[in-house]
Amino acid sequence: MLQPAFFFPAMDGFDRHEIDVNGIRTVVYGIGQGRPIVFLHGAGTFPGFEFARRLAANRRVLIPYHPGFGESADDDGATTIDDYVLHYATLFEQLGLCDIDLAGFSLGGWIAAEYAARFDGKIRRLVLVAPAGLVVAEHPVPDLSVVAPQDLPGYLTHDPTVAVRYFPKVPDPAFDQALGREMMGLGRLLAQDPQGNPKLERWLPRISAPTLLLWGSADRMRPAGAADAWLKLISNSSAEFFPETGHLLFEERPEAADSLLAFFNADTISRHQKGQTMVFMPAGVTKSTESCEGIVWSILGQTYTLKQHSDASMAWHAVLPPGTFVPPHIHPTQDEFIYLLEGELDLLLDGEKVSAKPGDTIRLPMGQSHGIFNNSADATVKCVFWVAPTGKLRGLFERIHNVGDPAEVVRIAAEHDVDFLPPPGA
Protein backbone atom coordinates (compact mmCIF):
# COMPACT_ATOMS: atom_id res chain seq x y z
CA MET A 1 0.00 0.00 0.00
CA LEU A 2 1.39 3.39 -0.97
CA GLN A 3 1.94 5.84 1.87
CA PRO A 4 3.06 9.17 0.36
CA ALA A 5 4.55 11.44 2.98
CA PHE A 6 2.46 14.46 2.04
CA PHE A 7 -0.82 12.55 2.24
CA PHE A 8 -0.50 11.77 5.90
CA PRO A 9 -0.75 14.95 7.97
CA ALA A 10 2.19 16.53 9.68
CA MET A 11 2.39 15.01 13.14
CA ASP A 12 5.43 16.80 14.55
CA GLY A 13 5.22 16.81 18.32
CA PHE A 14 2.86 13.83 18.46
CA ASP A 15 3.91 10.46 19.83
CA ARG A 16 3.00 7.39 17.76
CA HIS A 17 1.93 3.97 19.01
CA GLU A 18 1.04 0.74 17.23
CA ILE A 19 -1.45 -1.45 19.09
CA ASP A 20 -2.68 -4.90 18.09
CA VAL A 21 -6.48 -4.94 18.40
CA ASN A 22 -7.74 -8.45 17.71
CA GLY A 23 -5.04 -8.89 15.09
CA ILE A 24 -5.52 -5.46 13.47
CA ARG A 25 -2.54 -3.11 13.67
CA THR A 26 -4.01 0.13 14.96
CA VAL A 27 -2.00 3.34 14.96
CA VAL A 28 -2.72 5.83 17.75
CA TYR A 29 -1.21 9.31 17.87
CA GLY A 30 -1.02 11.31 21.09
CA ILE A 31 -0.08 14.82 22.13
CA GLY A 32 -0.18 16.81 25.37
CA GLN A 33 -0.53 15.95 29.05
CA GLY A 34 -3.49 15.67 31.39
CA ARG A 35 -6.87 13.97 31.31
CA PRO A 36 -7.24 12.27 27.90
CA ILE A 37 -9.57 13.37 25.11
CA VAL A 38 -10.16 10.64 22.53
CA PHE A 39 -10.91 11.99 19.05
CA LEU A 40 -12.32 9.77 16.29
CA HIS A 41 -11.62 11.14 12.82
CA GLY A 42 -13.85 11.44 9.77
CA ALA A 43 -13.89 9.42 6.56
CA GLY A 44 -11.09 11.39 4.91
CA THR A 45 -7.99 11.93 7.03
CA PHE A 46 -6.11 14.14 4.55
CA PRO A 47 -7.01 17.49 6.28
CA GLY A 48 -4.92 16.38 9.27
CA PHE A 49 -5.22 17.13 12.96
CA GLU A 50 -3.73 20.57 13.50
CA PHE A 51 -6.68 21.45 15.75
CA ALA A 52 -5.47 18.85 18.26
CA ARG A 53 -2.55 21.11 19.12
CA ARG A 54 -5.04 23.60 20.59
CA LEU A 55 -6.68 20.85 22.62
CA ALA A 56 -3.28 19.78 23.95
CA ALA A 57 -2.87 23.08 25.80
CA ASN A 58 -3.96 21.34 28.99
CA ARG A 59 -5.18 17.89 27.92
CA ARG A 60 -3.79 14.66 26.51
CA VAL A 61 -5.28 14.06 23.03
CA LEU A 62 -5.44 10.54 21.58
CA ILE A 63 -6.25 10.09 17.88
CA PRO A 64 -6.57 6.49 16.67
CA TYR A 65 -6.85 5.70 12.98
CA HIS A 66 -9.86 3.49 12.19
CA PRO A 67 -9.11 0.11 10.60
CA GLY A 68 -8.73 0.67 6.87
CA PHE A 69 -7.97 4.37 7.32
CA GLY A 70 -4.74 6.34 7.51
CA GLU A 71 -1.87 4.34 8.96
CA SER A 72 -3.94 1.54 10.51
CA ALA A 73 -4.15 -1.85 8.81
CA ASP A 74 -7.13 -3.03 6.79
CA ASP A 75 -9.80 -5.17 8.42
CA ASP A 76 -11.78 -7.00 5.76
CA GLY A 77 -14.19 -8.19 8.44
CA ALA A 78 -15.21 -4.63 9.41
CA THR A 79 -18.35 -4.18 7.32
CA THR A 80 -20.82 -2.69 9.81
CA ILE A 81 -20.77 0.10 12.36
CA ASP A 82 -20.98 -2.55 15.08
CA ASP A 83 -17.60 -3.89 13.97
CA TYR A 84 -16.03 -0.47 14.52
CA VAL A 85 -17.72 -0.07 17.90
CA LEU A 86 -16.34 -3.46 18.97
CA HIS A 87 -12.90 -2.45 17.73
CA TYR A 88 -12.92 0.69 19.85
CA ALA A 89 -14.40 -1.04 22.88
CA THR A 90 -11.39 -3.38 22.77
CA LEU A 91 -8.88 -0.58 22.09
CA PHE A 92 -10.19 1.55 24.96
CA GLU A 93 -9.90 -1.42 27.31
CA GLN A 94 -6.32 -2.04 26.17
CA LEU A 95 -5.51 1.64 26.77
CA GLY A 96 -7.08 1.47 30.24
CA LEU A 97 -9.57 4.24 29.44
CA CYS A 98 -12.64 4.80 31.59
CA ASP A 99 -14.77 7.85 32.35
CA ILE A 100 -13.91 8.90 28.79
CA ASP A 101 -14.10 12.33 27.20
CA LEU A 102 -14.96 11.19 23.66
CA ALA A 103 -15.25 13.30 20.51
CA GLY A 104 -15.87 12.36 16.92
CA PHE A 105 -16.15 14.14 13.59
CA SER A 106 -18.50 13.01 10.78
CA LEU A 107 -17.88 9.23 10.48
CA GLY A 108 -16.01 9.41 13.79
CA GLY A 109 -19.05 11.14 15.31
CA TRP A 110 -21.23 8.26 14.14
CA ILE A 111 -18.88 5.72 15.74
CA ALA A 112 -18.67 7.81 18.94
CA ALA A 113 -22.46 8.05 19.20
CA GLU A 114 -22.94 4.31 18.65
CA TYR A 115 -20.24 3.56 21.23
CA ALA A 116 -21.77 5.95 23.77
CA ALA A 117 -25.22 4.42 23.29
CA ARG A 118 -23.83 0.97 24.08
CA PHE A 119 -21.32 1.91 26.79
CA ASP A 120 -22.93 4.96 28.35
CA GLY A 121 -21.39 4.24 31.75
CA LYS A 122 -17.88 4.63 30.29
CA ILE A 123 -18.49 8.12 28.87
CA ARG A 124 -17.92 11.26 30.95
CA ARG A 125 -18.65 13.79 28.20
CA LEU A 126 -19.36 13.48 24.49
CA VAL A 127 -18.78 15.89 21.60
CA LEU A 128 -20.23 15.13 18.16
CA VAL A 129 -18.92 17.30 15.32
CA ALA A 130 -21.22 17.27 12.27
CA PRO A 131 -21.90 13.59 12.98
CA ALA A 132 -22.94 11.05 10.38
CA GLY A 133 -25.11 8.01 11.06
CA LEU A 134 -28.54 9.32 12.01
CA VAL A 135 -31.03 9.06 9.17
CA VAL A 136 -33.02 12.31 8.98
CA ALA A 137 -35.37 12.21 5.99
CA GLU A 138 -35.90 15.98 5.99
CA HIS A 139 -32.16 16.61 5.75
CA PRO A 140 -30.61 13.89 3.54
CA VAL A 141 -26.89 13.69 2.88
CA PRO A 142 -25.80 14.24 -0.72
CA ASP A 143 -24.94 11.50 -3.19
CA LEU A 144 -21.26 12.23 -3.76
CA SER A 145 -21.14 9.87 -6.74
CA VAL A 146 -22.84 12.57 -8.81
CA VAL A 147 -20.68 15.44 -7.49
CA ALA A 148 -18.03 16.53 -9.97
CA PRO A 149 -14.47 16.53 -8.56
CA GLN A 150 -14.11 20.26 -9.10
CA ASP A 151 -17.24 20.84 -7.01
CA LEU A 152 -16.15 18.72 -4.05
CA PRO A 153 -14.31 21.55 -2.18
CA GLY A 154 -17.60 23.48 -2.07
CA TYR A 155 -19.19 20.55 -0.25
CA LEU A 156 -16.37 20.38 2.30
CA THR A 157 -16.08 24.05 3.23
CA HIS A 158 -18.24 27.14 2.83
CA ASP A 159 -15.20 28.88 1.34
CA PRO A 160 -13.94 26.37 -1.27
CA THR A 161 -10.44 27.82 -1.18
CA VAL A 162 -10.04 26.46 2.36
CA ALA A 163 -10.65 22.89 1.23
CA VAL A 164 -8.59 23.24 -1.95
CA ARG A 165 -5.35 23.68 -0.02
CA TYR A 166 -5.65 20.12 1.35
CA PHE A 167 -5.65 18.58 -2.14
CA PRO A 168 -2.55 18.10 -4.34
CA LYS A 169 -2.02 20.83 -6.89
CA VAL A 170 -1.18 18.33 -9.63
CA PRO A 171 -2.63 14.87 -10.29
CA ASP A 172 -1.14 12.36 -7.89
CA PRO A 173 -2.05 8.65 -8.14
CA ALA A 174 -0.73 7.94 -4.64
CA PHE A 175 -3.06 10.53 -3.11
CA ASP A 176 -5.98 9.11 -5.08
CA GLN A 177 -5.14 5.56 -4.00
CA ALA A 178 -4.88 6.44 -0.31
CA LEU A 179 -8.08 8.50 -0.30
CA GLY A 180 -9.84 5.85 -2.38
CA ARG A 181 -8.98 3.24 0.25
CA GLU A 182 -10.70 5.33 2.92
CA MET A 183 -13.73 5.94 0.73
CA MET A 184 -14.03 2.18 0.17
CA GLY A 185 -14.12 1.71 3.92
CA LEU A 186 -16.91 4.26 4.21
CA GLY A 187 -18.73 2.64 1.30
CA ARG A 188 -18.81 -0.71 3.08
CA LEU A 189 -20.44 0.92 6.10
CA LEU A 190 -23.06 2.60 3.92
CA ALA A 191 -23.74 -0.39 1.68
CA GLN A 192 -27.11 -1.17 3.29
CA ASP A 193 -28.24 2.45 3.60
CA PRO A 194 -26.25 5.35 2.14
CA GLN A 195 -27.90 7.70 4.66
CA GLY A 196 -26.57 5.89 7.75
CA ASN A 197 -28.08 3.57 10.35
CA PRO A 198 -31.89 3.63 10.42
CA LYS A 199 -31.84 2.02 13.87
CA LEU A 200 -29.62 4.66 15.45
CA GLU A 201 -32.61 6.77 16.51
CA ARG A 202 -33.66 3.87 18.76
CA TRP A 203 -30.25 3.81 20.42
CA LEU A 204 -29.47 7.49 20.96
CA PRO A 205 -31.88 7.96 23.92
CA ARG A 206 -29.62 5.60 25.89
CA ILE A 207 -26.93 8.30 26.00
CA SER A 208 -27.07 10.14 29.32
CA ALA A 209 -23.62 11.75 29.27
CA PRO A 210 -23.57 15.52 28.70
CA THR A 211 -23.30 15.92 24.94
CA LEU A 212 -22.31 18.87 22.77
CA LEU A 213 -23.01 19.12 19.04
CA LEU A 214 -20.71 21.35 16.98
CA TRP A 215 -21.86 22.15 13.46
CA GLY A 216 -21.15 24.48 10.57
CA SER A 217 -24.38 26.21 9.59
CA ALA A 218 -23.48 25.93 5.88
CA ASP A 219 -22.53 22.23 6.00
CA ARG A 220 -23.53 20.60 2.69
CA MET A 221 -22.19 17.14 3.59
CA ARG A 222 -24.11 16.76 6.86
CA PRO A 223 -26.83 19.44 6.80
CA ALA A 224 -26.98 21.37 10.06
CA GLY A 225 -30.77 21.05 10.08
CA ALA A 226 -30.27 17.45 11.22
CA ALA A 227 -29.02 18.75 14.57
CA ASP A 228 -32.59 19.13 15.83
CA ALA A 229 -33.12 15.37 15.54
CA TRP A 230 -29.94 14.66 17.52
CA LEU A 231 -30.96 17.16 20.21
CA LYS A 232 -34.39 15.57 20.60
CA LEU A 233 -33.00 12.05 20.92
CA ILE A 234 -30.11 12.79 23.34
CA SER A 235 -31.71 14.24 26.48
CA ASN A 236 -28.68 15.97 28.00
CA SER A 237 -27.46 17.70 24.85
CA SER A 238 -26.83 21.15 23.46
CA ALA A 239 -25.51 22.57 20.19
CA GLU A 240 -23.24 25.33 18.95
CA PHE A 241 -23.38 26.46 15.33
CA PHE A 242 -20.74 28.33 13.34
CA PRO A 243 -22.09 30.62 10.63
CA GLU A 244 -20.69 30.58 7.09
CA THR A 245 -18.90 27.33 7.89
CA GLY A 246 -19.02 24.02 6.04
CA HIS A 247 -18.27 20.42 6.92
CA LEU A 248 -14.56 20.73 7.74
CA LEU A 249 -15.33 22.69 10.88
CA PHE A 250 -11.88 22.77 12.48
CA GLU A 251 -10.15 23.64 9.21
CA GLU A 252 -12.52 26.52 8.39
CA ARG A 253 -13.04 27.70 11.99
CA PRO A 254 -10.00 26.68 14.08
CA GLU A 255 -11.56 28.41 17.10
CA ALA A 256 -14.20 25.66 17.17
CA ALA A 257 -11.57 23.54 18.92
CA ASP A 258 -11.75 26.00 21.82
CA SER A 259 -15.47 25.24 22.24
CA LEU A 260 -14.73 21.52 22.34
CA LEU A 261 -11.97 22.01 24.90
CA ALA A 262 -14.08 24.29 27.10
CA PHE A 263 -16.87 21.74 27.16
CA PHE A 264 -14.53 18.93 28.18
CA ASN A 265 -12.82 21.13 30.76
CA ALA A 266 -16.11 21.96 32.46
CA ASP A 267 -15.49 19.57 35.33
CA THR A 268 -18.87 20.06 36.96
CA ILE A 269 -21.81 18.00 35.80
CA SER A 270 -25.21 18.56 37.36
CA ARG A 271 -26.69 15.52 39.05
CA HIS A 272 -29.82 17.47 40.02
CA GLN A 273 -29.62 16.01 43.50
CA LYS A 274 -30.13 18.27 46.50
CA GLY A 275 -29.07 21.25 44.45
CA GLN A 276 -25.51 19.93 44.18
CA THR A 277 -23.35 20.14 41.09
CA MET A 278 -20.40 17.77 40.89
CA VAL A 279 -18.30 15.40 38.81
CA PHE A 280 -19.90 12.04 39.50
CA MET A 281 -18.47 8.52 39.42
CA PRO A 282 -19.87 6.23 36.72
CA ALA A 283 -20.65 2.63 37.60
CA GLY A 284 -18.22 0.04 36.29
CA VAL A 285 -15.10 -2.01 36.94
CA THR A 286 -11.53 -0.79 36.57
CA LYS A 287 -9.66 -4.01 35.81
CA SER A 288 -6.58 -4.91 37.85
CA THR A 289 -4.35 -4.32 34.83
CA GLU A 290 -6.04 -1.04 33.83
CA SER A 291 -5.80 2.57 34.85
CA CYS A 292 -8.79 4.87 34.80
CA GLU A 293 -8.53 7.16 31.75
CA GLY A 294 -5.12 5.65 30.96
CA ILE A 295 -3.53 7.81 33.69
CA VAL A 296 -0.29 6.75 35.40
CA TRP A 297 1.79 9.28 37.35
CA SER A 298 5.48 9.06 38.26
CA ILE A 299 6.06 11.04 41.43
CA LEU A 300 9.50 11.15 43.08
CA GLY A 301 10.29 7.53 42.26
CA GLN A 302 6.83 6.18 43.07
CA THR A 303 4.20 5.04 40.54
CA TYR A 304 0.56 6.02 41.00
CA THR A 305 -2.08 4.39 38.77
CA LEU A 306 -5.43 6.17 38.81
CA LYS A 307 -8.30 3.76 39.54
CA GLN A 308 -11.27 6.06 40.19
CA HIS A 309 -12.04 9.76 40.19
CA SER A 310 -14.97 12.00 41.07
CA ASP A 311 -15.46 15.15 43.10
CA ALA A 312 -16.38 13.01 46.10
CA SER A 313 -13.32 10.75 46.09
CA MET A 314 -10.26 9.56 44.21
CA ALA A 315 -8.40 6.23 44.39
CA TRP A 316 -5.06 5.12 43.01
CA HIS A 317 -2.80 2.07 43.17
CA ALA A 318 0.68 2.97 44.41
CA VAL A 319 4.05 1.26 44.06
CA LEU A 320 6.72 2.47 46.50
CA PRO A 321 10.18 1.04 45.74
CA PRO A 322 12.55 0.28 48.64
CA GLY A 323 13.74 3.40 50.42
CA THR A 324 11.10 5.73 49.02
CA PHE A 325 8.78 7.80 51.17
CA VAL A 326 6.30 10.68 51.36
CA PRO A 327 7.53 13.25 53.93
CA PRO A 328 5.21 14.44 56.71
CA HIS A 329 2.43 16.63 55.34
CA ILE A 330 -1.13 17.72 56.05
CA HIS A 331 -4.32 17.55 53.97
CA PRO A 332 -6.41 20.33 55.54
CA THR A 333 -9.54 19.55 53.53
CA GLN A 334 -9.64 15.77 52.95
CA ASP A 335 -9.40 12.41 54.70
CA GLU A 336 -6.92 9.90 53.27
CA PHE A 337 -6.80 6.11 53.52
CA ILE A 338 -4.33 3.38 52.56
CA TYR A 339 -5.03 -0.34 52.14
CA LEU A 340 -1.75 -2.24 52.19
CA LEU A 341 -1.40 -5.07 49.64
CA GLU A 342 2.29 -6.01 49.76
CA GLY A 343 5.27 -5.07 51.92
CA GLU A 344 5.35 -3.03 55.13
CA LEU A 345 4.99 0.67 55.75
CA ASP A 346 6.33 2.74 58.60
CA LEU A 347 4.23 5.81 59.36
CA LEU A 348 4.54 8.97 61.36
CA LEU A 349 0.98 9.87 62.35
CA ASP A 350 0.72 13.22 64.10
CA GLY A 351 4.19 12.62 65.57
CA GLU A 352 3.56 8.98 66.60
CA LYS A 353 5.45 6.11 64.94
CA VAL A 354 3.34 3.14 63.81
CA SER A 355 3.68 0.39 61.22
CA ALA A 356 1.30 -1.47 58.91
CA LYS A 357 1.37 -4.87 57.18
CA PRO A 358 -0.55 -6.41 54.27
CA GLY A 359 -4.29 -6.36 54.89
CA ASP A 360 -4.11 -3.36 57.22
CA THR A 361 -6.10 -0.20 56.56
CA ILE A 362 -4.42 3.09 57.45
CA ARG A 363 -6.62 6.06 58.39
CA LEU A 364 -5.19 9.56 57.86
CA PRO A 365 -7.66 12.22 59.08
CA MET A 366 -7.77 15.65 57.52
CA GLY A 367 -5.81 18.28 59.41
CA GLN A 368 -3.40 15.75 60.99
CA SER A 369 0.17 15.36 59.78
CA HIS A 370 1.35 12.04 58.39
CA GLY A 371 4.48 10.70 56.73
CA ILE A 372 4.67 7.41 54.79
CA PHE A 373 7.93 5.42 54.56
CA ASN A 374 9.08 2.21 52.89
CA ASN A 375 12.18 1.62 54.99
CA SER A 376 12.88 -1.81 53.52
CA ALA A 377 16.20 -2.34 51.79
CA ASP A 378 14.81 -4.76 49.21
CA ALA A 379 10.98 -5.04 49.36
CA THR A 380 8.59 -3.01 47.24
CA VAL A 381 5.35 -1.79 48.80
CA LYS A 382 2.09 -2.01 46.86
CA CYS A 383 -1.05 -0.40 48.23
CA VAL A 384 -4.27 1.40 47.34
CA PHE A 385 -4.73 5.04 48.38
CA TRP A 386 -7.96 6.97 48.37
CA VAL A 387 -9.03 10.41 49.51
CA ALA A 388 -12.38 12.04 50.19
CA PRO A 389 -13.20 14.53 48.85
CA THR A 390 -10.82 14.79 45.90
CA GLY A 391 -10.26 18.52 46.23
CA LYS A 392 -7.22 19.66 44.27
CA LEU A 393 -5.25 16.43 44.63
CA ARG A 394 -5.67 15.22 41.06
CA GLY A 395 -4.49 18.57 39.80
CA LEU A 396 -1.47 18.28 42.09
CA PHE A 397 -0.52 14.86 40.74
CA GLU A 398 -0.83 16.12 37.17
CA ARG A 399 1.45 19.07 37.99
CA ILE A 400 4.18 17.08 39.76
CA HIS A 401 4.22 14.10 37.38
CA ASN A 402 7.89 13.59 36.40
CA VAL A 403 9.04 16.60 38.46
CA GLY A 404 12.37 15.56 39.95
CA ASP A 405 13.05 18.49 42.30
CA PRO A 406 11.56 17.84 45.78
CA ALA A 407 11.59 21.57 46.57
CA GLU A 408 9.50 22.27 43.48
CA VAL A 409 7.09 19.49 44.48
CA VAL A 410 6.65 21.10 47.90
CA ARG A 411 6.03 24.50 46.30
CA ILE A 412 3.40 23.16 43.89
CA ALA A 413 1.76 21.10 46.65
CA ALA A 414 1.12 24.25 48.69
CA GLU A 415 -0.89 25.60 45.76
CA HIS A 416 -3.08 22.46 45.85
CA ASP A 417 -3.99 22.35 49.55
CA VAL A 418 -1.26 19.93 50.62
CA ASP A 419 1.14 21.39 53.18
CA PHE A 420 4.50 19.66 53.68
CA LEU A 421 6.09 20.17 57.08
CA PRO A 422 9.63 21.55 57.40
CA PRO A 423 12.33 19.00 58.33
CA PRO A 424 13.03 18.66 62.06
CA GLY A 425 15.31 21.45 63.24
CA ALA A 426 14.71 23.56 60.16
What is the rounded Rg? 24 Å
Mean pLDDT: 89
- pLDDT < 50 runs, ≥5 residues: 1-6, 268-278
Q: Note the main sheet.
A: 8 strands, mixed
Give the amount of beta strand, in percent: 25-35%
State the helical fraction: 10-25%
User: End-to-end span in angstroms?
Assistant: 66 Å
What strand line-up does the widest sheet have? 1-2-4-3-5-6-7-8
Structural class: alpha+beta
Number of strands: 21
Number of helices: 12
Global outline: elongated
Structure report:
This protein is an alpha+beta fold. The chain is 23% helix and 28% strand. An eight-stranded mixed β-sheet has the order 1-2-4-3-5-6-7-8, sandwiched between helices. A six-stranded antiparallel β-sheet has the order 11-12-13-20-15-18, covered by helices on one side. Strand 3 (36-40), helix 1 and strand 4 (60-64) form a beta-alpha-beta unit. Helix 2 crosses helix 3 (107-118). The longest helix is centred in the middle third of the chain and has 17 residues, at 173-189. The chain starts with 14 loop residues before the first strand and ends in a 6-residue tail after the last strand. Residues 1-6 and 268-278 have low confidence and may be disordered.
